[in-house]
Design a protein that fits this description.
By secondary structure, this protein is α/β, with parallel strands linked by helices. The protein has helices spanning 14-26, 37-46, 63-73, 89-99, 111-124; strands at residues 6-10, 30-34, 51-55, 80-85, 103-106. The chain has a single domain, classed as Rossmann fold (3-Layer(aba) Sandwich). It has a 5-stranded parallel sheet, with helices on both faces. Helix 2 (37-46) runs parallel beside helix 3.
Length: 127
C-alpha cells in the first residue's frame, strides 16, 4: 500500500488553514499546518512533505521568503510549492514564480482546480 501523500499548509489565517486541512484530509492526505513562515520552516526540517502550500502575506517570515528558503534546501524534484494570496494576481503570480513556487492560486481558490494542480505536480514527481 502506498504511503499517504503529505502536505504542509502554512498560513497565518486559522480559518484558511482549517478549510484547506479539511479538504486535503477528506481526500486522504496526511496534513500538517503552520501559522507562519518560521513555524513552516521548522515543520519542513522535521520531515519533508510532498507539497507545501504557502500564503504570501504572513508575519515574521513572509511567504516569498519562505519559498526562497525552501527552494535553497530542496529541489523541485523533492518538493512542490503552491503559493496563494488574496492580493492582486497579476503581481503576486510573478512574485510567486520568482520566489520558486510551482503554482500560484488567488484566494478564494477553486478547490477542484487546486486538486487538479496538486495531482499534476505529484504525478510529475512520480508520486
Amino acid at each position: 500500500m502506498p504511503r499517504p501523500r503529505r502536505i504542509l499548509i502554512v498560513d497565518d489565517s486559522f480559518v484558511s488553514r482549517a478549510e484547506l486541512e479539511e479538504a486535503f484530509r477528506e481526500r486522504g492526505y496526511e496534513v500538517d499546518t503552520a501559522a507562519d513562515g518560521a513555524e513552516g520552516l521548522a515543520r519542513v526540517e522535521q520531515g519533508l512533505p510532498d507539497i507545501v502550500m504557502i500564503d504570501a502575506v504572513m508575519p515574521n517570515i513572509d511567504g516569498w521568503e519562505l519559498c526562497r528558503r525552501l527552494r535553497s534546501r530542496a529541489s523541485s524534484d523533492q518538493l512542490s510549492i503552491i503559493a496563494m494570496s488574496s492580493k492582486d494576481a497579476s503581481t503576486t503570480s510573478l512574485q510567486a514564480s520568482e520566489a520558486g513556487a510551482d503554482e500560484f492560486f488567488q484566494k478564494p481558490m477553486d478547490v477542484d482546480e487546486l486538486f487538479e494542480s496538486v495531482d499534476r505536480l505529484l504525478a510529475a514527481r512520480g508520486l
